[in-house]
Amino acid sequence: MSAADNPALPEAVRALAGGDFSQVAQRFTEAGFAVGLPASGVITVKAALADPARASVLVSVGVHGDETGPIEMVALVIEALSRTPQALAVDLMLCVGNIDAIAQGKRFIDADLNRMFRAERGSLAGTFEAARADRLIAATVDFFAGAGPQRWHLDLHTAIRPSHYPMFAIVPELIADQARKALIDWLGQAAIGAVIMNPKSVGTYSYYSSEHHGAAGTTVELGRVGTLGQNDLSQFADASEALDRLLRGQPGLAARAAPHVFATARQVIKLSDAFTMSVGRETWNFTPMKKGDVIATDGDTVYTVEHEEELVVFPNPDVRVGLRAGLMVTRVA
Ligand SMILES: O=C(O)CCC(=O)N[C@@H](CCC(=O)O)C(=O)O
Ligand SMILES: [Zn+2]
Q1: Average model confidence (pLDDT) across the chain
Q2: Atom 5 (ligand 1): residue with closest C-alpha?
Q3: CA 105 from chain center: how many Å?
Q4: What is the fold, at CATH topology level, of the domain defined by 3-248?
Q5: Phi then psi dihedrals of residue 211, to 5 deg
Q6: Could you confirm whether 282 is annotated as catalytic?
Q7: Residue 4: what pLDDT?
Q8: pLDDT grade, residue 30 (50/70/90)?
Q9: Distance 163 CA to ligand 1 centre (A)
């Protein structure tokens, strides 16, 4: 049974998981907003009169179909907000990334959507998800066209494996200082324990928004993959509150702690089918490795730890050739 058909789910969750924004659209339209439905699973809600002082906030969920916690969290935030629609203080684009994969409870149908937000797609061109990426890119271009300088993109995910920091985020380095500070402050309010600064695109949605639309974009990992309707929503209390406040234009609550900051030492790219990793698939994110340790081998290429300590994030030898199979980070603060 697909998520959209599961009667046990709250109606708002069922609707969002299926990319159905009809009720939300109706409420904001009746309240006088300019509402658009530029693609299936995408809604934009803007002030009727364009206002460059208003922040533009893109929130995406379900870019990976089995990462369901943020779908539930966002569905409840938007449901509550749409019942008092005048409280929306930003121009909003809400995007349910891979509706078909959500329906099947899978990360993707054919290939990883979150590697297709770049012109050069290589072997990913022509896959099922490539067409979806094109639609999301077109909707994103339209959303940010003419937007004021305050631009955000929160791409909400969950991690496959356990993590020494259960909530963490990846932040493109190219975001301008002031916007990056505001973003990292917000991540702290959302109880995100660690931030990884990323110098280079691997084709992700949030990097794309940052690079091409000047958004303060981030991929946020909120816990672990799970079944829709079975997530422990209490773990998202701070993230949910921080999102709600952002959308209502309210100042954030003080962060319990600033996120720890990590730099990217290296993206480990799978070069061939000969790729093997020396860390197991169940290795926790942020597991430390020491200088000289072998991370992976790929034919003649040997990836070794070069700093005194590097921590491994997202180790996954099962990705397609050409894609990132892991991220090595070093502790900064
Ligand atoms: O847990 C994993 O191995 C993957 C979780 C996930 O989907 N992470 C994102 C991070 C995107 C980024 O680097 O900004 C991804 O791999 O797409
Ligand atoms: Zn993901």
Answers
A1: 96
A2: 159
A3: 17
A4: Aminopeptidase (3.40.630)
A5: -75, -40
A6: no
A7: 64
A8: very high
A9: 13
